[in-house]
Write a structure and sequence with these properties.
The complex is a heterotrimer. Chain A is an all-alpha fold. In chain A, 71% of the residues lie in helices and 0% in strands. Chain A has one domain (28-306): Orthogonal Bundle (MetI-like fold). Chain A has 13 helices and no strands. Among the domains of chain C are: 101-172, no CATH class; 229-321, no CATH class. An 8-stranded mixed beta sheet of chain C has the order 6-7-8-3-9-10-12-11, with helices on both faces. A 4-stranded antiparallel beta sheet of chain C has the order 2-1-4-5. In chain C, a hairpin with a 2-residue loop joins β1 (6-17) and β2.
């Protein structure tokens, strides 16, 4: 009954209506994905990161089927082997195969990076969301906490931690994340404060939504682009931090290979075994570059106006 | 309808049960102040007196128009009336229940009975949700329907507001302003409210679209027996849609009357100048019109003038106006005005 | 017959967008006579603002791709950027909807109002400022000498619009273009500004183009009006005649769709159904035909030209050009 009386108005002749009815629905995510796909360099960087991650995950497989070496197998008969058919990228002072160690090192380095990002994002987003949404005393307390965390000299913390216990990939990730979440929290809080001002939040309140729904269904999806951008740009930074810690001996300890600690002794052998420096260095460089390019591509895809 | 009173037996203030003959919404001496803070300690140094002692009754099925210039507190009053803002003082009765300080689940239950339509059809819809999500959300929140029944209900709501139900999976940005406003109206209607606050629902729309939305609101009102508080700055629109009009200035109601009565015989000097300021789309009328042009700007709501708030711009103001606040006085037939020296 | 002060002939302005070329102004012609107030009325996206910006050559990123803007014997679409800059400050002034964004927040108001005088007349700061203060007083800013030392954010919306008008008038231009000057203002402030514009028109003899979506404002301000829809002029003529017996169905239905304050009884409004068209994908023929209650077969095929209909009006409509009266329930 109601429907029939309105039929005349349904078939609105304006172009906007017709356009909307013939095109497939364009969600924000779809559109961003389309823009990202159109960015060739960005996509290439993304694909590279995925490939590196897959290789790292499948490291044992590679060591069995492709390189035929174990990362920690010492072969004193083949120290400082040049890159060649037996050892694709040569060997180190203990005769360990560089490719195999790079692949296993990638496991550690990328694993630490992704875990760090995941932890700091989760904690940071949670804290930022609560502080931004509730405001008031909770905001005051949480943000003072963030200020405190951000004031801790990170390097001091890292030294202290490496003295107290031998860092494993997981503990290292937690340590780096423990100073990294503060910035995420600030970012998310700022974004929540701005989204909170928009009328649709009031509209959602006006239909009786609970706080959890407001945060999960409305604020989070609107804050998510910022988080994704932070995550993709974060991976590169964490890799650099992790490599630096390992190099300084504050991170992952030998004999476990990581891209950073592979460089630790390499400097002394640079003149006769340059590959020990070049290959881990180049790997780190390419990975960080790819992560930065991909992060920027994602940001452009989410918000073309920022470009 | 009264069987779905959200408050159960508690908080009744009427000695007898509320009936539709009583005011649906009754606001008395309502104050909504916002703190102004300053300094590093964010100490409150003053208050914005957004709504500062308002009495207003809205009867079941009527449309009360609320007009005034920006900053007069009309939006704040509308939001406070449906408890989207916490009142500083005063009392709000809804269907006879005191809802002034309702909280938690009882307040959430009340949300089924009142809704709001917003000014900006761009900002008031979540850009990450489809039209179906937006209209379906109130249904989910109040557990009104599930599965296919829910889908049917969403489609029905879209049809009611004149949108093609095929659009459920589309996103707000694919629509024009007028169509988005229809989505916002569908969301408001989805809980089957009895009272809707329309906060400038057409002022962001194109001229040729405004009439469509006004007519839609009128049709929905008679179809669903809705009561509206219609907030707008455009007195011509308000006069068209409202049974009664309340004129606000700096947080206070200056005059309340039926639309025609208000237009023909305004009592408050502010109403008079407001009416005279509204351009009429007829050059014959316009050339003959006498213009009362108000001088100056609206005073600050942080530190409103003593006595009558309009006195700083009022051509009829005398000494007495600064000393005492004029009360709303009856001028017969539901016509009230707050002025010591009214127009005749 | 007086010589027109400004003559816009078959103006075309386009914008390149992702979806294709948008013809924002599509063959607009009109003249502005000395001392008159001409109204340009239409909805958002009808091209009224782009027309004004094109006259001032401020249409970027749009491009003027055809037509002429004749002003004092020269075609403004052809003059160099330097010459245009000189004309903009000296001969033509423009005021906008949002006076806040048009004023620079970091300079004192008086300094900004005096700027055209320093720039175009080469006056020294002191002389320019004295003149600016005088002008601020003339547009109704109380204690102008003191207020000239304030920054724009210290002014209310209406006062800022007065400042903009003062700034435009310092060089006593021949043409003032006001683009929705009161849309952002409250009605009582709108009344003040409209009154000021009337006063300016009388006292300075400045010819004014008033661009607005508000038919009431046109009715009270303009002797002549042009109505735009989808980038084209659909109707033009004396305001009295256009409002009394519109010769284009768009004008006709628009006037019936808006509520009037002086309406005697409550009658349902008669809205124009449908939506304004997308400029990227205009309907064939007359752009208004999908929403038009009077359309005939020809309307979806051929674009009607603006032709005289009746004694004083011009209309771009096949129906009225054929002599049909517009009427209906």
């Amino acid at each position: 009954m109601i429907g029939q009386s309105r039929v005349a108005e349904l078939e609105l002749p304006g172009a906007a209506v017709e356009g909307a009815s013939t095109r497939p629905a364009q969600s924000y995510w779809n559109e961003s994905w389309e823009r990202l796909r159109a960015n060739r360099i960005g996509m290439a960087a993304g694909v590279l990161i995925v490939i590196l991650a897959l290789i790292a995950i499948a490291a044992p497989l590679f060591s069995l089927a492709v390189t035929h070496f174990q990362p920690q197998t010492i072969d004193l008969g083949a120290t400082f082997a040049k890159p060649g058919s037996a050892h694709l990228l040569g060997t180190d002072e203990l005769g360990r195969d560089t490719v195999t160690r790079l692949i296993y090192g990638g496991r550690v380095t990328l694993g630490v990076a992704f875990l760090t990002v995941a932890v700091s994002l989760t904690v940071g987003a949670g804290v930022g969301m609560l502080a931004g949404y509730y405001g008031g005393w909770l905001d005051d307390i949480l943000m003072r906490l963030v200020d405190t965390v951000l004031a801790i000299p990170a390097i001091f913390l890292f030294i202290l931690m490496s003295i107290l216990f031998r860092p494993t990939p997981i503990s290292l990730a937690l340590i780096i994340a423990s100073v990294g979440w503060g910035n995420v929290a600030r970012l998310v809080r700022g974004e929540v404060l701005s989204v909170k001002q928009r009328d649709f939040i009031l509209a959602t309140r006006s239909i009786g939504a609970r706080d959890v729904r407001m945060m999960v269904r409305h604020l989070l999806p609107n804050v998510l682009p910022v988080l994704i951008v932070a995550a993709s740009l974060g991976v590169g930074q964490i890799i650099l931090i992790e490599a630096a810690l390992d190099f300084l001996g504050l991170g992952i300890q030998p004999p476990t290979a990581s891209w950073g600690n592979m460089l630790t002794n390499a400097e002394s052998y640079f003149f006769h075994s340059f590959w020990l420096v070049i290959f881990p260095g180049v790997t780190i460089f390419i990975t960080v570059l790819a992560s930065n390019i991909f992060g920027n591509a994602i940001r452009d895809a989410f918000d073309p106006r920022l470009k | 309808m009264s069987s779905r009173g959200p408050l159960g037996e508690a908080a009744k203030t009427l000695t007898r049960a509320w009936t539709t003959a009583d005011p649906l919404v009754s606001v008395s001496d309502l104050k909504v102040w916002f703190p102004v803070s300053s300094g590093i300690l964010q100490r409150t140094i003053a208050h914005v007196h957004a709504v500062d002692g308002v009495d207003l009754e809205i009867k079941t099925g009527e449309t009360v128009g609320l007009v005034g210039e920006s900053g007069c507190g009309k939006s704040t009053l509308g939001r406070a009336a449906i408890r989207l803002l916490e009142p500083t003082a005063g009392k709000i009765l809804f269907k006879g229940d005191d809802i002034t300080h309702l909280r938690g689940e009882r307040l959430r239950a009340l949300r089924r009975d009142m809704a709001m339509i917003f000014q900006d059809p761009y900002a008031s819809l979540d850009p990450r949700q489809t039209v179906g999500d937006i209209v379906g959300e109130p249904i989910d929140i109040h557990h009104l329907a599930k599965g296919k029944e829910r889908q049917d209900r969403i489609r029905e709501m879209l049809r009611v507001v004149g949108l093609n139900p095929r659009f459920v999976d589309r996103y707000p940005h694919e629509f024009s302003g007028g169509q988005r406003q229809r989505v916002g109206i569908a969301r408001a209607l989805a809980v089957e409210p009895s009272f809707i606050v329309c906060d400038e629902p057409i002022s962001a729309l194109d001229v040729s679209i405004q009439a469509q939305i006004i007519n839609l609101l009128e049709r929905l009102q008679s179809k669903f027996n809705l009561t509206y508080l219609f907030i707008a700055h455009d007195l011509s629109v308000v006069k068209h849609i409202s049974n009664r009009i309340a004129v606000m200035y700096l947080g206070k109601i200056m005059e309340v009357a039926g639309g025609t009565q208000l237009y023909k015989r305004p009592r408050h000097p502010y109403t008079g100048s407001l009416l005279s300021a509204i351009p009429i789309p007829d050059p014959v009328v316009e050339t003959r019109r006498e213009r009362l042009i108000l001088q100056g700007d609206v005073a600050s709501p942080v530190n409103p003038p003593s006595g009558c708030r309009f006195r700083t711009r009022c051509p009829r103001a005398r000494e007495h106006c600064a000393e005492e606040v004029p009360p709303l006085e009856e001028y017969g037939d539901e016509h009230k005005a707050a002025c010591f020296y009214p127009l005749d | 017959m007086t010589q027109a002060l400004l003559e816009v002939q078959d103006l075309h302005t386009v914008f390149a967008t992702k979806e294709g070329t948008v013809k924002a102004v599509d063959g607009v012609s009109f003249e502005l006579n000395p001392g008159e107030t001409l109204g340009i009325v239409g909805e958002s996206g009808c091209g009224k603002s782009v027309t004004a910006l094109s006259i001032m050559r401020l249409q970027r990123p749009g491009k003027i791709v055809g037509g002429k803007v004749m002003f004092k014997g020269q075609d403004l679409t052809k003059v160099t950027e330097d010459e245009m800059r000189d004309i903009r400050g000296r001969e033509m002034a423009m005021i906008f909807q949002d006076p806040m964004t048009s004023l620079n927040p970091v300079f004192r108001t008086g300094w900004q109002v005096a700027e055209p005088l320093r720039l175009h007349h080469g006056w020294d700061s002191k002389k320019a400022l004295t003149s600016a203060v005088q002008m601020l007083g003339r547009v109704g800013i109380p204690s102008a000498a003191e207020r000239a030392r304030d920054y724009p954010h210290q002014f209310s919306g209406g006062m800022r619009q007065r400042v903009m008008i003062a700034m435009g008038l310092t060089t006593t231009p021949a043409v003032l273009i006001a683009d929705e000057p009161t849309t952002a203002l409250d009605v009582t402030i709108q009344a003040q500004i409209l009154d000021l514009l009337r006063h300016v028109n009388r006292e300075f003899g400045t010819a004014t183009i008033l661009i607005t979506h508000n038919l009431g404002v046109v009715a009270g301000m303009c002797k002549r009006v042009i109505v735009m829809y989808a980038g084209r002029v659909v109707e033009a003529g004396p305001t009295m005649d256009v409002f009394a017996h519109p010769k284009h169905p768009y004008t006709w239905s628009l006037l019936r769709s808006i509520p009037r304050l002086d309406a005697e009884r409550h009658e349902p409004l008669k809205p124009i159904e449908g939506l304004p068209p997308s400029l990227v994908d205009l309907p064939s023929g007359c752009a208004f035909h999908p929403r038009c209650a009077f359309k005939v077969e020809r309307c979806s095929r051929d674009v009607p030209a603006l032709q005289p209909v009746g004694d004083t009006q011009l209309s771009a409509c096949w129906v009225t050009q054929a002599g049909t009266e517009l009427k209906g329930a």
